[in-house]
Amino acid sequence: MEPPPGPVLPPPPLPDGTPATRTPEQTENLRRFQCELEFVQCLANPMYLHELFMQGILEQEEMLNYFKYLEYWRAPEYVRFIVYPTCLVYLTLVQQELFRSRLGDPTFVQDLVRQGQKHHETW
Question: Which Gene3D superfamilies match (predicted)?
Fold first, then answer.
């Protein structure tokens, strides 16, 4: 998946006040990092997973490979950026055929939403 084009903010000035610069490669790496972080965190939303199922995206071989690729977010140097850790649970589950097939059932999806709400109420 290619990150969407868009502006990437310039880096903040260095402590001595001189402007910091990024190479085009660093800018592209930052854009990719931000896009992948946003996508992996969207997996924490069962309604989003349901929409991916309804569009047939979850059955595409490229998408299944992409989920495997996203496993790197579990590494300590990346997981620290995750705000919604439930996304990593769903990243595991969405790689299982049975779970993906159940995402077509609105009752199952609503149960996932309710379980998430209960978790956050008592967390």
Answer: Mediator of RNA polymerase II, submodule Med31 (Soh1)
Long-range contacts formed by 13-21: CB under 8 A, 24+ apart: none
Query: pLDDT tens digits for 9-38?
Result: 777 776 777 777 778 888 888 899 999 999
Measured CA to CA, the distance from residue 90 to residue 94 in angstroms comes to 6
Cα 52 from Cα 59, distance rounded (Å): 9
Asked if 94 and 67 touch (Cβ cutoff 8 Å), the reply is: yes
Q: What pLDDT, in 10s, does the model give residues 65-98?
A: 999 999 999 999 999 999 999 999 999 999 999 9
Residue 12 corresponds to which amino acid? P
DSSP 81-121: T-S-THHHHHHHHTTSHHHHHHTT-HHHHHHHHHHHHHHHH
End-to-end CA distance of the chain: 34
CA distance 32 to 8: 11
Q: Nearest-CA neighbor of 35 among 4, 62, 78, 75?
A: 4
